[in-house]
Design a protein that fits this description.
By secondary structure, this protein is of the alpha/beta class. It has 3 domains: 230 residues, FAD/NAD(P)-binding domain (3-Layer(bba) Sandwich); 96 residues, no CATH class; 131 residues, no CATH class. 35% of the residues lie in helices and 18% in strands. The protein contains 18 helices and 19 strands. A hairpin with a 5-residue loop joins strand 6 and strand 7. The longest helix is centred in the N-terminal third of the chain and has 24 residues. The chain is globular and about 65 Å long.
Length: 519
């Protein structure tokens, strides 16, 4: 029996789960409030320049391959290429480290840049993270997961419990294993991949650094926005109805069960199942009125928001041959997290500055120009209790400050600027619907916060979650895994009745116990 599924949001998670469910035999339609698709995987084009305004690196590219293989085969025109070096880091003392794409070359690069012995320290950390990745990849990231207890039950031996070390932070792990403070700074940056403070982020998230080093950093020619375009095309090939500019204002209930959605124009879409790709806070606070959601709502209210980002799009005269990805670290990295995630949030005085400037002819109007995407961490937009990013003049003043800071660190592009556009956390909130522009939903502070993201199966029957604010977390590969987990929970349409969530196989043809059960 065919079942009807409505997906709220056409971000990467929403499109990916829609494709998987359609391939499994469901009738799927997607409703997106924005006039375009892709969610945080945004794009901006002007005067011949094109900028990715969201993720700029792809890791775990095989996860993307798995999605397309499960839904009809490789897409046309998606050219994924390695980024080498993966990133160029410049530290406060002027030291420069070009981190190779190939992990075999990393120890030598570290020894050459930071001094003898740093390569061996990195190798020890890398091996530890490999064991941790082996422990969590299939049994945590690819399954529904209910928290720390599940992870500790997987770690049956004392050595594995010590490896998970839920009592240790990412900062503490760096201090224990990396003697060089610059290398500790490199590791701490991976906490920002989930919008968090490394001093409060559990060490289990060291797997993020391992993923990037072991599986490599990758880029899509023409920009990572091509991933969203390929997902939209796959959905349409599978018969998914994608409605852009169609805002969902409420999940429709029938008794205690989700039974569709209500649209801003007053229309209703009836469905057997609802999958929400909007931020979990938006779902539980604004879209859902169901007693069963009370506990989830209270939990999210207690959780701190993740960081947001302050970005500039710079259209520059001239080109350089520097690496595509560059990071300039401040002298006091801890002060950055105090400013953004402390009790009195404020813009960072001396921020870490990230630049994405790919050498891609498709992104520039001519060979005498270059586009830079400049990003610094920033507190979410919160006029009542924190920073009001819409305050007149604030954004332009801070943009000037960031460019002046970059100049002080030896890279002054101010005379090369043809034009610039500024994107604040308030802009992110308006464009993506993420509360305050908090990119990753909630911060991963403490083992419970990191591992107890909102479940893919909501407490309301017939309602599921997908995307960066749900399990297993934010970032392109985890969002794609989230779609796999959610589609596995739903499974193919059940014969003779609405979908029950207890299928014999998942949408890729694997036993459902792989997605919905536990060993």
């Amino acid at each position: 029996m065919e079942s009807r599924v409505v997906v709220i949001g056409a971000g990467v998670g929403g499109l990916a789960v829609a494709a998987r469910l359609a391939a499994a035999g469901h009738r799927v339609e997607v409703h997106e409030r924005s006039p375009t698709h892709g969610g945080k995987l945004g794009v901006r084009s002007r005067d011949g320049f094109t900028f990715d305004t969201g993720p700029s690196l792809l890791t775990l590219p095989h996860v993307l391959d798995e999605l397309f293989a499960a839904t009809g085969g490789p897409p046309d025109g998606l050219d994924v290429v390695p980024v080498d070096p993966a990133c160029c880091y410049t530290f406060a003392d002027g030291t420069r480290l070009d981190m190779p794409h190939d992990p075999a070359h990393v120890p030598a690069a570290l020894d050459a840049a930071l001094g003898a012995g740093t390569g061996a320290a990195w190798q020890a950390l890398h091996e530890r993270s490999r064991k941790l990745w082996d422990l969590v990849e299939d049994d945590v990231l690819r399954r529904p997961f209910d928290g720390v207890g599940d992870l500790l039950r997987l770690a049956r031996r004392p050595s594995e419990i010590a490896l998970v070390a839920p009592w240790r932070t990412l900062d503490g792990l760096g201090r224990a294993m990396l003697p060089d403070p610059r290398l500790r700074r490199w590791l701490a940056r991976y906490a920002t991949y989930s919008g968090s403070d490394p001093r409060r982020t559990p060490s289990v998230l060291s797997v993020t650094a391992y993923i990037e080093q072991h599986h490599g950093a990758w880029y899509v020619r023409g920009g990572l926005r091509g991933i969203a375009d390929a997902l939209l095309a796959r959905c349409r090939d599978l018969g998914v109805e994608v409605h852009l500019g169609s805002e969902v204002t409420r999940v429709r209930m029938s008794g205690n069960r989700a039974a569709g959605v209500v649209l801003a124009d007053g229309g209703e879409v009836r469905a057997d199942l609802v999958v929400c790709n909007a931020d979990a806070t938006v779902l539980y606070e604004n879209l859902l009125d169901a007693p069963a959601a009370g506990r989830a709502r209270r939990t999210l209210r207690r959780a701190p928001r993740s960081m947001s980002g302050f970005a500039m799009l710079l259209a520059l005269d001239g080109r350089d041959d520097a690496p595509a990805h560059r990071v300039w670290f401040p002298d006091d990295y801890a002060a950055e997290f105090d400013a953004v995630l402390g009790r009195r949030p404020r813009p960072i005085e001396d921020p870490a500055i990230y630049v994405h400037a790919p050498d891609d002819p498709a992104l520039r109007p001519d060979d005498e120009s270059q586009g830079w995407f400049v990003l610094v961490n920033a507190p979410p937009h919160d006029p009542g209790r924190g920073v009001d990013w819409d305050e007149p003049g604030r954004a332009e003043r801070y943009a000037d400050h960031v460019l002046a800071t970059l100049a002080e660190r030896g890279t002054d592009v101010r005379e090369r600027i043809r034009w610039r556009e500024v994107r604040t956390p308030a802009d992110l909130e308006r464009e993506t619907g993420a509360p305050g522009g908090a990119i990753y939903g909630t911060a991963s502070h403490g083992a419970r916060a990191a591992l107890l993201r909102p479940s893919n199966r909501s407490p309301v029957p017939g309602l599921y979650l997908v995307g960066g604010s749900a399990h297993p977390g934010g970032g392109l590969p985890l969002v794609l895994l989230s779609a796999d987990v959610t589609a596995g929970l739903i499974g193919p349409p059940a014969t003779g009745s609405p979908a029950t969530g207890s299928p014999a196989t998942d949408p890729a043809g694997r036993p459902a116990t792989r997605a919905a059960g536990r060993p």
